Write a sequence for this structure.
């Protein structure tokens, strides 16, 4: 933690690291969605891992150390393994033969481009980061735990109920004879 | 130029757009699910950067909850996909048209 803080203390290094991690995140995100070389879902899952890990790097640059660790453990660990297990269970050889429809591609590109333009315009006009002081916040485990177990105890307990419900639902859904 | 809130928000927007593009464009249910995860992650990035630059930890607590809900959502969704595959032998949205008029 001390070493990271020292590294992040300088002004030039975090900026360069931001550009590196942002470029990695976006590049791997593109390769998840539209990989020109492979249409295999396993490739998409692997690039999703890379996206998530570089996003954890962005979280470290934002001094959210606990969330960076959780991101890697929960997403890159649990969620991706779940994805890979399901890909293994299903037989997805067929996917590579199918073409992406031109209409879907162009329509998707146009609508998504419009949304990007609108949101960037909105960002340019509102300019939310203009008058903010230099950030001091540290998202360490201690501070986050204090907040989570004092102010946010009730949501925390509700989330545990949600996880229980999800677990029961998954067990019921994966029974052999679904009624 | 100093990296500020806007830079992180631009990355978040672009990542969200990528996820949306995947949902619109791809026809495989699993890849659509991965694109949904990308969109959730973009929202997380925006929340963490707002939290950092406004000096409030509440945003990070919200991200913590979002990660939990996303994990539950993935588990249920993938179980649904497996159940669907057992019944229809496909994970392709174009083959799942029984609700079409």
């Amino acid at each position: 933690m001390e070493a990271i803080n020292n590294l992040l203390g300088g002004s030039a290094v975090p900026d360069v690291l931001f550009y590196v991690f942002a470029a990695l995140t976006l590049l791997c995100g593109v390769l998840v969605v539209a990989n020109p070389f492979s249409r295999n879902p396993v490739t998409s899952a692997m690039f999703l891992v890379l996206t998530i890990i570089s996003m954890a790097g962005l979280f470290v640059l934002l001094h959210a150390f606990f969330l960076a660790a959780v991101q890697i453990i929960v997403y890159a660990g649990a969620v991706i393994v779940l994805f890979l297990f399901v890909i293994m269970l299903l037989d997805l050889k067929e996917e590579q033969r199918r073409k992406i429809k031109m209409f879907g591609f162009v329509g998707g590109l146009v609508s998504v481009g419009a949304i990007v333009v609108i949101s960037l315009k909105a960002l340019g006009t509102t300019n939310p980061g203009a008058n903010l002081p230099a950030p001091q916040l540290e998202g360490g485990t201690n501070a986050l735990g204090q907040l989570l177990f004092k102010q946010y105890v009730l949501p925390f307990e509700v989330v545990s109920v949600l996880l229980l419900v999800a677990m029961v639902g998954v067990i019921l859904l994966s029974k052999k004879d679904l009624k | 130029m100093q990296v500020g809130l806007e830079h992180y928000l631009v990355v978040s927007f672009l990542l969200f757009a990528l996820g949306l593009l995947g949902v619109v464009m791809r026809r495989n249910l699993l890849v659509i699910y991965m694109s949904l995860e990308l969109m959730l992650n973009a929202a997380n990035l925006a929340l963490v950067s707002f939290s950092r630059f406004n000096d409030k930890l509440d945003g990070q607590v919200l991200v913590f909850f979002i990660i939990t809900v996303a994990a539950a959502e993935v588990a249920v969704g993938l179980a649904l996909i497996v159940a669907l595959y057992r019944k229809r032998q496909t994970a392709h949205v174009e083959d799942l048209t029984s609700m079409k008029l």
Observations:
- The first helix of chain B runs from residue 5 to 25.
- Chain B touches chain A through 71 residues (CB under 8 Å).
- The helical segments of chain B are 5-25, 29-53, 58-88.
